[in-house]
From TrEMBL:
One of its GO terms (molecular function) is hexosyltransferase activity. Residues 173-203, 223-233 have a biased composition (Basic and acidic residues). InterPro entries: GT87. Belongs to the glycosyltransferase 87 family. Residues 411-424 have a biased composition (Pro residues). The chain crosses the membrane at residues 45-66, 78-97, 104-122, 277-298, 482-505, 550-568, 580-607, 634-654. This is DUF2029 domain-containing protein. It is found in: Cell membrane.
């Protein structure tokens, strides 16, 4: 019956306004979703107009934010603009939920492109990492491994220019690091060889002009090798100071191989004379591509309206144009690969693991999301031979729905299937020796176990009234946890190893670069004095002072407990949920001070819809930007992460209180008196079907309320 309150047309179930059904899957929906009603209110045009106004205001505020360089001069004003942008983003993300799936997808995609384009209006405002990206790409284009030399090494002096290595008055601006002047380059020809020198050059004994002859020619779209007027260098005795825009010019690069390949690709694709605009354009393309992947995944959901609206949590988030586009952080590449990998894991575990490995090879942080790909692999069935709860409900619903289609009104009922054979003696007892051997072989050789089914598979027996366990799950499914645990991790490790292999073979220095030094510099090393200066472990510091001496074992223990909970209780059809829990917990425990790290959290929130975790990137902004506006601003970051933790706990409590209501709302009507009760899988299937088909105002006798024909037990 049409809903008189919202105009003509069917109205979706009330539970779709909150979240998708807990036992639905993203692939192979049991039935095509009903078209959502576009008349959500009495005036359906109000929501689109309001959403367009909010998005236009968001774009305008972001454009004004990027046009002004207030990070060093007025961080308080910059924080105020950030707060306005986040408020507009929250209002727009709430308004888009009132639209249908198709209309929301258009707004999400177009609005996301407009929001990302604002980051192209100015050079990087709050970070200098993009200059290091450009330098690493230039070094690789010259045929030199980026892991062999630090930027200020005289061996790379011929690659310097006035853009990355300014001199004189240009060195008085912010974010400039002094470097020693490059020595005069000799006029001699470059000798042939595979490397600049037989041993690493030193400042006293350097060969700056000797490059790898096998590398590309330094001309055309690449920096010039010969010192031209645009690439002049100061003499060793010159009094004119020389500096660089690169941060940490005295250490080797820290970025993994996939990131280095991305830098080289952008450098080769950039036109001559370009600076950071190619890297910013690459960040914008990666951000929009992530939005497209989220929208494509939403179309496979049983109700695509709500997942489509959730994609706006990434597309319109102010952190995306600031960090992924304007600052051109390579985290955008890792986020795209992580999102694609987690979406692919439920259907193609090897491909999903490979994508997660590529994300780790682009930015090491996505490795924290890898336990999400193993969600539920340690969970056990309730009885021997029965599937997991979510899989059993989903398969039972499909079986009953297919049977109902074939036995609808006016169709003859098929002959009843013969009852299943009685269970063998000892069915509930431990598996025999042969089964134990097969299980052990499955752990050691999971692929062979999957390819070769066990011989104890019983013939599937499908019954309309009572589907048996053999019809729901084959006897070989006990080996799936072993294969599920091994395959994504093995694929990810193989991709990371293959990514590092070329650099290991061609580099003479460690391919880890400055990684260990960076960990100590950021205060994550036991006993490091930088933990107090950078306000690391801010929440643990509230429990006991001096966390730099004891926090690391505590963080490891808590993360192991969270990972174990994900492996035991996680939903294998929603691996992003477990990845969000593990990643968000790591952020709350370690309280990093760089907001671009939280781009991964924003993408996982867009996949799962748990909005309370958006407090984590906001806390990073407070610690990185707002703390500069006050004296002794460490308390600002601590307060931000404390509020974020409180929001996460409040969201968890609200969802726990709402769960019983959602379960009671989806419960089917009580059968008429005199009807035999049924239990087990058939009852679960009928409950799921009634929850899927029931709509408010369904007339008596419809598919949602008509009682099933039941077969009484003898």
């Amino acid at each position: 019956m049409p809903d008189q309150r919202s105009g003509p047309g069917p109205r979706p179930p009330d539970r779709d306004r909150l979240a998708p059904p807990p036992d639905s899957t993203d692939e192979h929906p049991a039935e095509p979703p009903d078209p959502p009603s576009r008349a959500r209110t009495a005036h359906p045009w109000i929501a689109p107009i309001a959403l367009a106004t909010l998005l236009g205001s968001l774009v305008a505020v972001l454009a004004l934010t990027f046009r002004g360089d207030d990070f060093h001069t007025a961080p308080g004003a910059l924080s105020l603009r950030y707060a306005i942008a986040w408020a507009l983003f929250a209002a727009a993300a709430w308004t888009v939920r009132r639209l249908g799936a198709r209309q929301a997808a258009v707004f999400v995609l177009v609005g996301g492109a407009a929001v990302a384009a604002t980051g192209l209006l100015a050079p990087p405002r709050t970070s200098t990492d993009a200059y290091r990206y450009a330098w690493d790409g230039r070094v690789q284009a010259a045929g030199i491994s980026p892991y062999d030399y630090a930027p200020e090494d005289p061996a790379l002096a011929s690659l310097r220019d006035h853009w990355l290595f300014p001199k004189g008055p240009a060195c008085h601006g912010p974010d400039r690091a002094p470097v020693r002047p490059a020595p005069e380059r000799p006029k001699a020809e470059r000798p042939e060889g595979r490397h600049p020198e037989a041993r690493r050059p030193t400042p006293e004994r350097a060969a700056p002009g000797r490059l790898i002859p096998g590398g590309p020619a330094l001309g055309g779209t690449h920096p010039r090798a010969d010192p031209a007027p645009d690439h002049a260098h100061s003499a060793p005795g010159s009094a004119e100071p020389q500096c660089t825009r690169l941060n940490r010019p005295s250490v080797h690069t820290i970025y993994p191989p996939a990131a280095e390949g991305y830098f080289l690709l952008v450098h080769r694709s950039a036109p001559s004379g370009s600076t950071l605009l190619p890297l910013q354009t690459g960040g914008a393309l990666l951000s929009v591509a992530t939005t497209v992947v989220l929208l494509a995944a939403a179309r496979r959901r049983r109700d695509p309206r709500l997942p489509t609206a959730r994609a706006a949590l990434w597309a319109w988030c102010p952190a995306v144009p600031v960090e992924a586009v304007n600052n051109a952080h390579v985290d955008a590449l890792g986020v795209l690969l992580t999102v694609a990998g987690l979406i692919a894991v439920p259907r193609r575990r090897a491909l999903g693991g490979a994508l997660l490995g590529a994300a780790t090879a682009a930015k090491l942080l996505p490795a924290v999301a890898l336990p999400g790909a193993l969600s539920g692999v340690l969970a056990r069935a309730t009885k021997p031979g029965e599937p997991h709860t979510a899989a059993r409900r989903t398969t039972a619903r499909r079986t009953v729905l297919e049977k109902f289609r074939s036995t609808g009104p006016g169709r003859p009922a098929p002959a009843e299937s013969p009852p299943p054979p009685p269970p063998r003696e000892g069915a509930g007892s431990p598996a025999p020796a042969a089964s134990r051997i097969r299980r052990a072989a499955a752990v050691v050789l999971p692929r062979a176990a999957v390819l070769r089914p066990a011989t104890s598979v019983s013939r599937p027996t499908v019954s309309f009234n009572r589907p048996t366990a053999s019809a729901v799950r084959p006897a070989t499914s006990f080996i799936r946890p072993a294969a599920s645990a091994v395959l994504p991790v093995a694929a990810a490790a193989a991709v990371v190893a293959l990514g590092y292999l070329p650099y290991v073979l061609l580099s003479r220095s460690s391919v880890l670069g400055y990684l260990t030094g960076y960990v100590a510099e950021e205060g994550y090393e036991t006993g490091s004095a930088a933990a107090d200066d950078k306000n690391r472990y801010a929440l643990l510091r509230l429990l006991h002072p001096g966390p730099e001496t004891w926090a690391l074992p505590v963080v490891a223990a808590v993360l192991l407990a969270v990972v174990g909970w994900v492996l035991l209780r996680g939903d294998p059809q929603r691996p992003w949920r477990g990845a969000l829990v593990v990643t968000g917990t790591a952020f709350l425990l370690m309280t990093p001070g760089y907001p671009w790290y939280a781009l991964l959290v924003v993408a996982l929130v867009a996949l799962d819809g748990r909005w309370e975790w958006l407090g984590v990137p906001l806390a990073g902004v407070a610690q990185y930007v707002t703390a500069r506006a006050v004296d002794d601003g460490a308390w600002v970051g601590t307060l931000g992460y404390a509020v974020a933790c409180a929001a996460v706990m409040a969201g968890w409590a609200l969802r726990a209180l709402r769960a019983p209501r959602a379960a009671s709302a989806s419960r089917p009507p009580r059968p008429p008196a005199g009807t035999a009760k049924t239990t087990g899988t058939a009852e679960t299937a009928r409950t799921a079907e009634a929850a899927d088909a029931a709509t408010p105002g369904s007339p008596p006798g419809s598919a949602a309320t008509r009682p099933r024909r039941r077969r009484a037990r003898r």
